[in-house]
Amino acid sequence: MAEPLLELRHVRKAYGALVVTDDVSLSVEPGELHAIIGPNGAGKTTLIHQISGTLPPDSGQVLFGGEDITRLPMPRRVRRGLARSFQITSILPGFSALENVALAVQARSGSSFRFLGNAAQEKALNGPAMECLDLVGLSPRAYVPAGLLSHGEKRQLELAIGLATEPKLLLLDEPLAGTGHDESQRVVETLRRLKSRLTIVLIEHDMDAVFSLADRVSVLVYGRVIATDTPERVRTNPEVRAAYLGEEELV
Amino acid sequence: MTELAETPSAPAPSLTTRLELIPIVLFAAFAAAPLLATSSGAEGYVLSLLTRVMIFGIAAMALDLILGYGALVSFGHAAFLGLGGYAVGILASHGIEDALIQIPVALAGSAVFALATGAISLRTKGVYFIMITLAFGQMLYFLATSLAPYGGDDGMTLSSRSLVAGSGILENDFAFYWVCLFCLLGTYAFSRALVASRFGRVLRGTRENTTRMEAVGFQPFRFQLVAYVISGMMAGLAGCLLANQAEFVSPAFMTWQRSGELIFMVVLGGLGSLHGAIIGAAAFLLLEEFLPEILHAAGFFLSEETRSHLAENWKMVFGPLLILVVLFVRGGIMGLLRRPHHG
Q1: For a designed S-S bond to A234, which of A59, A217, B97, B189 qualifies (C-beta 3.0 to 4.6 A apart)?
Q2: Burial of B75 (0-12, 13-18, 19+ CB in 10 A)
Q3: Cβ–Cβ contact B37 with A under 8 A
């Protein structure tokens, strides 16, 4: 088997007596869409913070492409190809959608310590940015200030920003949170298109979306991974059903 | 759609020609002023007042660069005015009177001070940043008051204005006026380019959402620090000019009140438009200059004694007036100029 792209080894994080992620070990293979599900408060977002570098784990290791990145700050991880989106939309509201994405392109291409030349006119930045917007279906809205986009469009924009950093792995923290039915359909379609291009770690509440997209699913309950398997097998796993799925209507 | 594409924080490309008109008119006014001054009969007074306006315009614009575009509220920016002033004063007292040496020394001094204090201050956020920049400013102020060989508390008088490559051309008020205008125009053009550049875009992005900038791979601290250094150097240049304008340097250049005035100029003119800061500086200094007379004239229905009291205590009107502008005219004077367009 190929070397996993992302590997968590016994990652643990506690706030006082409250253990939020407890000895989590997980490996994400290159090219797969790996979903992490779990009931509210299972520690999903805390886990993604530790992978992306916003929170340091108390113990354990995070390996990316075989290298230990446990202590690297977020910007350095992004430069290695580990991008993320946020559960609560995080964009630059005063910038146009295109500029939001172009900034991410700029972060990857050449020095940003250039004091002259109008960055907004740089074709080398706007071109790839437009492609990313196209990919998520936002190109008609490229010149609209991001703050004026609808909630669903903002989620799409976050995806485009993530893509523009040319990640090897994209961490998505509930990309469907707060979207309406039609909007979430659109995001799911986008994700389906992206699946073939890069590795994705998806944290999501929407079970329909997870089971239709994921190659493998890990179930997190009270900070512990209780199962990692294909969607079909996870669905029939008695332990999972007992701990989590039993209370939900499964498709 | 065009309405949507317009945001107050967007840089040059989306600004309409109407807004480009303001800096053009502003600089044209500065260029025309000396000609009018000649015919006014009080030429020396008008020139020196407007020269001060331009010098503070440079300093306020320097502050706007980090305050308006980087949301960094530096409450110690007068320190750089002082640094520039003392560089001129101290070098002159040792016989180095050429601006071609004084200005590079002032800029280097400002850069080093900005780098050292910025590297510490920028690790803090919000109120702490304001307080720590204030503390550094005060530190320099007290250092200046203790410089006994250079006048201490009283400051020192320059024997003459700086030379330029050995020539005393700056002694001429007109020549000095044009040099200040050239500096103002130069720093303005540079700042405009800076704000629209790759660097400026990162700075503006950091102002809006630091976490997002980190999440695409930028380290905001570095960009903020470089911006702080550039801003400090610009204010240092203003300090050099101010010392020459007054032919005097004293610790009063860098009191915390002066830092506060700079912030006020920027807010009064309108944050984040650069020429707004120049207009703010002009409005502030001209009001300061003429408010006593305006008050005296406006109080024609009062007794002579009350009128002179009013004129004497003009600051009691000045303060509330500034507060009213900030409260009721969002975006300062630039906001006022922009409004008819949006309506």
Answers
A1: A217
A2: buried
A3: no
Within a 10 A sphere around the Cβ of B186, how many other Cβ atoms?
13
Phi-psi region of B174 (alpha: psi -120 to 50; beta: other; left: phi over 0): alpha
Of A140, A166, A192, the residue at which a domain comes to its end is A166
Residue type, A157: L
pLDDT per position as a tens digit, A189-245: 889 988 888 999 999 888 888 888 999 999 988 888 988 999 989 888 888 887 765
Interface touch A92/B199, C-beta < 8 Å? no
Which residues are A8's β-sheet partners? Answer: A26, A62
Find the domain containing A96 and state its range: 92-166
Quick: pLDDT tens for B149-167: 999 999 999 999 999 988 9
Looking at the domain assignment, is residue A87 inside a domain? no
CATH number at residue B124: 1.10.3470
Q: Which residues of B touch A79 (CB under 8 A)?
A: 217
pTM score above 0.90: no
CA distance A215 to chain B (A): 26
CA-based nearest residue to A165, from A109, A94, A215: A109
Q: Does B68 touch chain A (CB under 8 A)?
A: no
**Closest residue of B to A145, CA-based?**
B5
The answer, for A96 touching chain B at a CB cutoff of 8 Å, is yes
Task: Indicate if the pLDDT at residue A163 is higher than 50.
Answer: yes
- Residue B241: which domain range? 2-7+14-342
In a domain, A86, yes or no: no
- A189 and A238, same domain (yes or no): yes
Q: Scanning every residue of chain B, which has its alpha carbon at the shortest distance from the alpha carbon of A113?
A: B199
